[in-house]
């Protein structure tokens, strides 16, 4: 495996990194273990001070961090900057709310359990391994690491091999804020080495954001060793538009949802399921807006869509689109890779899809939208729920009864009404079915890697 920073806008390898050998991996696990013992005994007041200091460090470094993200994985610079700012917000959110999220609870009437006092306390598990993807190189890590550290856990980070600069940046970030050395340690290792880290008795749990095969492998190893796992495995989110919707707003948000992060977002709207009464009008607006997008250098502030992060990722998109077109899909716009250096793919819209096309059930990780015409809400939900994924969903309707019906019937971890799915530190995030299990963010995400301990006093 090559660990390297390769600029996806040019295909140029900028820097390569030597993987950590087994001795270095053991040294870093020991660092994380030592830091876990130290953090466990620190107060929330101390951790809060360090966490706010970490946010200050990142805030002073917004531009450099944003440029690092764009160079490593191709996100337009405006979006990279927004990612860093979102990280800062989340860090401060957990600094301010962690103590209340993990506050002890007392039983109102302990005599019911024959006690003078009884209740529960939350305590950290210890060292947690985080296996993270490249599409949000800082945010995906921060949204787990900030609550984990505030709870008193420490983090071993196995980041994607194409974002090593981000991995090493995170390796130092929290230490600069005052956390003990080892509070977050990055491991530059091959995916095949992950199982051995999970198996190490010093590692108490694991979280992964990535593909279904990767999640299955991690969960299998964790299960064999009776260790907690949280999995976020992507999605093929439906974006449903009903006759009462504001079509101008829906079409604008649909474009933003589909091409955000160059289309490489697990919670992006990917399948646009539109009622026949408004289908033609919506499609006209949607395709027109897709055609207006600026595809270009991700370092240019005016760029809307940059390159895909990897050459193999673009090959996957080409394969899905070509398969659909060969089987009769209607290509409304796009469908080609521009003749230029880098791993670009033009914003694409497909219609007239049939069940024998791969794109109907597989996740589309690029700027490609799938359109479906439906006659009513039952057909809309049938198509929305037909994939194996269940991460999030978006419903556009101004009919209150209809919106409640969709909330009840969509198989997803979230439903966004008249808006684009976005992750917020204030709200739990996660999915069902092949999109994984467990939750990140909010109080629920923080508690995933804590021991809920019952305390009974005579």
From TrEMBL:
Residues 2-455 form the Aldehyde dehydrogenase domain. Keywords: NADP, Oxidoreductase. Gene3D superfamilies: Aldehyde Dehydrogenase, Chain A, domain 1, Aldehyde Dehydrogenase, Chain A, domain 2. CDD domains: ALDH_SSADH1_GabD1. The keyword Glycosyltransferase does not apply. It holds the Pfam family Aldedh. InterPro entries: Ald_DH/histidinol_DH, Ald_DH_C, Ald_DH_CS_CYS, Ald_DH_N, Aldehyde_DH_dom, ALDH_GabD1-like, GABD/Sad-like. Belongs to the aldehyde dehydrogenase family. PANTHER family: SUCCINATE SEMIALDEHYDE DEHYDROGENASE [NAD(P)+] SAD (PTHR43217:SF1). This is Aldehyde dehydrogenase family protein.
């Amino acid at each position: 495996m090559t660990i390297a920073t390769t600029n996806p806008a040019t295909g140029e390898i900028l820097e390569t990194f030597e993987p950590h050998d087994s001795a270095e991996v053991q040294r870093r696990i020991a660092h994380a273990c030592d830091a876990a013992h130290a953090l466990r005994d620190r107060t929330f007041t101390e951790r809060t001070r360090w966490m706010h200091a970490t946010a200050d460090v990142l805030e002073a470094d917004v531009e450099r961090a944003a440029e690092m993200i764009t160079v490593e994985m191709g996100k337009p610079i405006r979006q990279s900057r927004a990612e860093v700012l979102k990280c800062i917000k989340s860090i401060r959110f957990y600094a301010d709310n962690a103590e209340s999220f993990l506050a002890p609870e007392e039983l109102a009437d302990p005599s019911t359990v024959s006690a003078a006092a009884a209740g529960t306390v939350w305590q950290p598990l210890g060292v947690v391994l985080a296996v993270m993807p490249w599409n949000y190189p800082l945010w995906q890590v921060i949204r787990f690491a900030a609550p984990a550290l505030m709870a008193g856990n420490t983090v071993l980070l196995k980041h994607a091999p194409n974002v090593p600069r981000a991995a090493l940046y995170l390796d130092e970030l929290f230490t600069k804020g005052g956390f003990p050395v080892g509070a977050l340690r990055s491991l530059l290792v091959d995916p095949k080495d992950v199982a051995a880290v999970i198996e190490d008795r010093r590692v108490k749990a694991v979280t992964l954001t990535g593909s279904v095969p990767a999640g299955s492998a991690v969960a299998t190893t964790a299960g064999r060793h009776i260790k907690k796992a949280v999995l976020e495995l992507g999605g093929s989110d439906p974006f449903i538009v009903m006759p009462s919707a504001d079509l101008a707003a829906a079409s604008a948000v649909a474009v933003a949802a589909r091409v955000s992060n160059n289309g490489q977002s697990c919670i992006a709207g990917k399948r646009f399921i539109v009622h026949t009464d408004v289908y033609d009008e919506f499609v006209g607006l949607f395709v027109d807006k897709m055609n207006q997008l600026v595809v270009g250098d991700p370092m240019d502030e005016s760029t809307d869509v940059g390159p895909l992060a990897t050459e193999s990722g673009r090959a996957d998109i080409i394969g899905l689109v070509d398969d659909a077109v060969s089987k009769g899909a209607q290509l409304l716009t796009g469908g080609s890779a521009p003749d230029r250096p880098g791993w670009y793919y033009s914003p694409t819209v497909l219609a007239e899809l049939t069940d024998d096309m791969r794109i109907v059930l597989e996740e589309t990780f690029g700027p490609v939208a799938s359109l479906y015409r439906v006659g009513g809400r039952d057909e809309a939900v049938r198509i929305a729920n037909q994939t194996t994924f269940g991460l999030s969903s978006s419903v556009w309707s101004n009919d209150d009864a209809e919106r409640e019906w969709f909330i009840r019937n969509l198989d997803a971890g979230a439903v966004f009404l008249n808006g684009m799915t976005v992750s917020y530190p204030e709200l739990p995030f996660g999915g069902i079915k092949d999109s994984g299990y467990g939750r990140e963010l909010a109080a629920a995400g923080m508690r995933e890697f804590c021991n809920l301990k019952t305390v009974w006093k005579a």
